[in-house]
Amino acid sequence: MPSYLFTPDQQAMQEAAARFARERLAPGYQKREAGQAIDRDLMREMGALGLIGVDLSERFGGMGLSSTTAGVIIEQLGYGDFNVAYVQLLASLMGSIVERHGAPELAAKWIPRVVAGDAMIGLGLTEPRGGSDAANLMLRAERRGDRYLLTGEKTSASCATQCDAFVVFARTGAPDTGARGVSAFFVEADAKGLTRTSFDDVGHKAVGRGSLFFDGVEVAAGARLGDENKGFSQVMQGFDFSRALIGL
Ligand SMILES: Cc1cc2nc3c(=O)[nH]c(=O)nc-3n(C[C@H](O)[C@H](O)[C@H](O)COP(=O)(O)OP(=O)(O)OC[C@H]3O[C@@H](n4cnc5c(N)ncnc54)[C@H](O)[C@@H]3O)c2cc1C
What we know:
Blueprint: H1 8-25, H2 29-35, H3 40-48, H4 67-80, H5 85-101, H6 104-115, E1 121-124, E2 140-144, E3 147-158, E4 165-171, E5 182-188, E6 194-198, E7 209-220, E8 224-225, H7 239-247
Parallel strand pairs: 1-4
Antiparallel strand pairs: 2-3, 3-7, 4-5, 5-8, 6-7
Residues 122-126, 130-132, 156-158, 204, 209 line the site of flavin-adenine dinucleotide.
């Protein structure tokens, strides 16, 4: 039946995602949930089929399609495996942040890997004192010449022990600067001084939330995303879109 909501191209993507969900995701869902990890081979299969980060730029391997198309795919994949749909969610949100606010070399290195299903970039925003009041986050980033030193803790990060890198929000301004003293950084998961632990969550186990501990983690100034102290106003712009994707 023709859809009055979606274009013919969106319907084609919807059908491809629905088929993948039905044939490749649904049958192994329970086993994967018990295994407590996203299957990397499945990620690569989705990447090869063009089901990851379709809204990211063609320059970096995406398709330059609309956010609606990304949402259509996430909704269909979620029917087969709620956990696996998180791969697309992280790809669209984190990929667009790196694409818009990262150095071109950083985007060229990471986004093609994300789109191919070879890498996941996670979000380090929430801290133990609470996630709603993100403007008052405390993890510190101190400038030392051409580097920053990150010290503090993030918690409740999805795929904490599985991600290959994180977009981390940290305080670069004085403690009382609120949203005006926050900057965003790209931190590779194997950075020295970064350790990760996993929660024993009640469900959603293949995604698995966890904590990130930063003990003087060195980050090159070139890995800052957006301007210093503009993490809130510039980099968090995509978050409203991601909340809609989570709802799907
Ligand atoms: C499945 C899942 C995945 C997640 N993935 C990530 C991730 O990848 N990265 C990441 O950084 N975070 C992640 N989070 C964390 C999420 O963003 C936080 O849970 C959220 O921001 C709320 O923070 P909190 O849990 O600390 O609750 P709190 O901020 O402590 O809030 C607790 C309760 O108090 C209420 N409340 C808070 N402030 C006020 C106020 N001023 N007035 C009235 N009521 C208030 C809230 O609505 C809530 O009901 C994830 C959470 C879940 C559940």
